[in-house]
Structures are given as structure tokens and as C-alpha cells.
Amino acid sequence: MNNIRLMEEKDIPFIQRVAKESWADSYEGMIPSDIQEAFLKEAYSTSYLKIRMKSSLMIISEKEGVLTGFANFSEINGGACELFAIYLLPEAQGRGIGTILLKEGLVRLREVKQLFVNVEKENLRAKRFYDARGFKVIKEFEEDFKGHKLQTIRMMKG
């Protein structure tokens, strides 16, 4: 059974590993590896993760003592929340862990009426995941991602 718990400082190396492996698996051929590395170095630096741990909801999935993934939610206001990430180790995908993390985040953020997430349009696996969990596309836009143009889909549940 999966145990979901709050992230602790000792989990930072794991979070960094999962983000790197998940990005490499999900965005190969979509986002050049040097741009992925630049983003991950910034967004998943130890100092930034310590800030995110205190200012947002960071939860970890653990099965039999083995960490398998994490999710990061941030309340916006008035019952709205942003889902920044649900990342799993590639070998842990397709086992319901992402769904468990999503549900647990919503339970812990009790007052959430709307949940937003941005998905790279070409990331069909992520889009199918959110479609299957009741998210609807509310907007499409082009994003300048560290000098690389991305087609992004904004989705909402609620």
C-alpha cells in the first residue's frame, strides 16, 4: 500500500532525482535536454525546494519504504489551487500512484473548489491522465520556456 506523507528536508535529493528522471522520460524529443537541465537546476535547487516545502503543499508517495513520487500544490486564493507537479519515477507510473497523490492533495487542501494545471500540449500521457480525472481544457497558449517555444494547455478541475 502507498503511504502519502508531507515532504521533509531529507527528501530533497529524492525530489531532485524524480524530477530529473520524470522530465527526461516525459519530454524527450519535446524539450531539448539542455533546457530541461537549466529549468531543473533552478526549479529543483535545494534552496528553492526548502522554500516550496514551507510555502506550498509538497507530498511524497512511499511504498514499503521506497519513495516513488511526489506532488506539489499551491493555494492561489478563494478556493483556487495550482498543481505544479505530479512526478513519479518512470517505473512507478501506471500504478495509480498519481491518482492517489492527486486525491490526497485535494483532501489536505480542504477548501479547494478549482484546481488548475498547465500541461505541455505534446505530453499526451499527462493530458490523458488529467482528462480521465475530470480536468477540462480552458485555454491554450504559447509559452517561452527558457528560449524554447512550448504549446501549453491550461486545464481545470472543479
Low-confidence stretches: none
Number of strands: 7
Tally the helices: what do you get?
5
- Which of globular, elongated, flat, extended, rod-shaped describes the shape? globular
User: Which range best describes the helical content: under 10%, 10-25%, 25-40%, 40-55%, 55-70% or over 70%?
Assistant: 25-40%
Output the helix-strand order. EHHHEEEHEHEE
| Strand ordering within the main sheet | 1-2-3-4-5-7-6
Largest sheet: 7 strands, mixed
Strand content: 35-45%
Round the mean pLDDT to the nearest integer and report it.
Answer: 93
| Quaternary structure annotation | single chain
Report, as a whole number of angstroms, the end-to-end distance: 28 Å
Radius of gyration: 15 Å
Structural class: alpha+beta
Give the topology, please.
Elements: E1 2-6, H1 12-27, H2 33-43, H3 46-55, E2 57-63, E3 66-77, E4 80-88, H4 97-108, E5 114-120, H5 124-132, E6 136-145, E7 148-157
Parallel strand pairs: 4-5
Antiparallel strand pairs: 1-2, 2-3, 3-4, 5-7, 6-7
Helix pairs in contact: 1-2
Features:
158 residues, alpha+beta
In short:
With 158 residues, the protein is of the alpha+beta class. Helix content is 37%, strand content 38%.
Overview of the structural elements:
By secondary structure, this protein is an alpha+beta fold. 37% of the residues lie in helices and 38% in strands. The protein contains five helices and seven strands. Helix 1 (12-27) runs antiparallel to helix 2 (33-43). It is globular.
